[in-house]
Fold:
Amino acid sequence: MPIGQRVVFIGGGHNALIAAFYLAKGGFKPLVLERREFVGGGAITEEFHPGFKVSALAHTLGPLRSDVARDLRVENFNCEIIRPDPRVFAPTSGGQALLFYDDHAKTAGGIARFSAKDAAKYTEFAASLSKISSVFAQLCAITPPSIGKPSPEDLWNLLKTGRGVRGLGKHGIFDLLRWGPMAVADFVAEFFETELLRAVIAARGIFGTALGPWSAGSTAVLLLRAAADANPAGSATFSRGGLGAFTHALAEAARQAGVEIRTNTEVQHIRIKNGAAIGVVLADGEEIAVEAVVSGVDPKRTFFQLMDPSQLDPTFALRIRNIRANGNVAKVNFALNELPSFPALAGTVGPDGFRQALSGRIHIGPEIDYLERAFDASKYGEFSAAPFLDITIPSLLDPTLAPAGKHVLSTYVQFAPYKLREGSWSTRGKDLGATVMKTIAEYAPNFPNLVEATQVITPHDLETKYGFTGGQIFHGELALDQLFTMRPVLDWARYRTPIHGLFLCGSGTHPGNGLTGASGANAAREIIRELR
Amino acid sequence: MKPMLSMVPPDPTTLNPRDLKQLHFLMQRFRELSSDERYTLIQLMTMSSADFLDQWFETDVLKATMSASGIIGTFLGIRSPGTAYVLLHHYMGEIDGAFRSWGFSRGGTGAISNAIAAAAREAGVEIRTKAPVGKIVVKNGRAAGVMLQSGEEITANVISSSVDPHLTFEKFLEPSQLPSDFLEGVRRYKFRGSSGKVNIALSALPEFKSIPGDGAHLRGAISISPSMEYMERAYDDAKYGHYSRRPYIDMVIPSLTDPSVAPPGKHVLSCFVQYAPYKLAEGTWDDQREAFGDNVIETIAEYAPNIKDIIIGRQILTPLDLEREFGLTQGNIFQGELSLEQLFFLRPVAGQPGDSQGMEETGGTAAIERSKFFESACGDECSL
Structure:
């Protein structure tokens, strides 16, 4: 295909924007078609109540893989990254708390109040995690190899990764082999005895998944995330103006590179002829003829809604159908007339430290079994009365989000299964909101009195309003059998599809997961290679 | 998968040609599979048995019963990732060349052990029973023999232990005799017994509501696994330290096929029960034994109401009994969890002493030389 050819992107999420950017740099003419009125996918800002803005879905950044960050330079496009420290505040309902900082020694100081042994182990753990997850970082940057016919590039990548693995030493290699399939509950118990500490670290293995801390494979998810940020508590950065500022900056960088972006433009279906994608048809009937189409939406939507599945090879269609993509997470956003107070902070920081301690993420999930019980409920089609919450109060460091003195509290709620056994999400969303309010009140008793407005985004909303099939925010479950060479399906994990000229670039591809831009960047690399 | 079961697991960390060759053999075999076979194999190694079966079937009780094979002897639920492997494992055996079959032996399972012993004796093996080992004797860093609990010492150049790693390394040896790394690995090895056994002497046959009377349905395994939710809730109880209020039960009535095990007209009902967690949240297994047994009978009575009227006697084996009487640490019937992180070359310990490189690299106060000491069996995953 000659350079200069138009490439259409379906969906304007962060991966699609990043992939389009790279394609433009590679000499192509990308056209991004976004259904909603603004780009961003799961990283957006909404004014959910007059005067109150929130990162409606994702509320913290990836962070972007370093090469992607360097290439796109979002800070040149009106995107200021805010880095709270401490990153995480984790209270118990009994009034104790842990704070997790950038500085491991400082974190260990706080841990010492619970256990001297754990405090001593913490820095060692952080170092182990950093070392092992660096191998995962290498894996995240490569295209999964073809098993049947590995290319020279595949062999080179495997050799490089193999060298990285060998660099871990015998002990490190066995740790990697053991930890990958382990349950996070067992993983954290190898290092620590303090329940609260275990729970905060373990939570990274279950966020956004259908796994509990006792589920095998959850450590692999934790290591995948640690590859992006090796701090044991995870990252807590966000952008001024909410995450919409981040994706707007990506869009601006893309535009400046030569990408055309059209919003309020919905793709109805992909036109396929003789096994090749020859164009897209828009909802208003307009047809755009192209030789390459890149889908940034999830695989199930791509293959079962944007085309006639009878066009697909039956084995491929079966494998896509088998992808587990039932979301297990919801989002609740609150407009508050005041900052809530958390008594558990009183024993940990002085009063002048309260605001700073609340500026990062707040983790509600004080024990491993608490997290497991929250997960149990979802197995039977229910949400738990004691959910795991991942909270931010971004207005503390970004006053532009709320009127003076008022605040926004944004929380992920787990576990909230896409399929409810009783009733439906359209009627039970408010019950979920009430449960979340009650749970927060156990840690911040004055909370319910401060709420001016509540926005509940159920798994059903995630699907119908925001475009995530099954409400699965990663486009497909993060589980051992749906990662790497199995993501989205075996034999088609290299961003290509059986339809000639049709590619995938979203979270449903390797490595998937959070806002790192890795899927989009990897996809762009392969698409350029294929189209040249 | 079959060849892997009879392999000595290669060391994946070494550049030793022998291990590399074996790893290459496995990789080649994997690559020779068709795409469909590879897809299924990867799924079987990573998925839960329930999710795997969801892809094939829709009938709840069918899926529940089949997925039960995925949790036998494990501390996992049917929805736990990794149980599809256990499902595969239970379908990999064979009897008399009939692959994937299970069966009875006349005189009970003991007849099999006795037959193996007879064959061994005929080959020249001397077998002594009532001879409990007290410790393994180590001289100058080499295993030199065993000392029985009676005090009798038996010297030997080679000692092969088929009891579990905890007993072998922590009961029969002193911590100072082992490299600290290795010992740490042994201590990390998970047992997590989850099953109990209830053996009942019956004066008549149980009458099942669903298929009354005698028939072929009583001559195989009778599985109490009515729904996937039932199975998963049984596991949930155990996670928090309770035996399942409504357990999964796998029962056989061997007296129907082999009348030699009971008086005429009477029967034996042998029940394998899950879950019975070794670590209870409240009380001890000695206190809870009878209640556990009662609960099993209550459960069976929901399907065969006459059961309580026909019980002549019962034997209840809790995980604690399995540990005390049968030498199974924490009552785990496979001498260790069949979980992904402790299979193949990770079983029982990564970098085990069967690997000479491993021993040379680990320090410790007293390295035990590979040539004189084998850890030769690890439950179902034999390494020899």
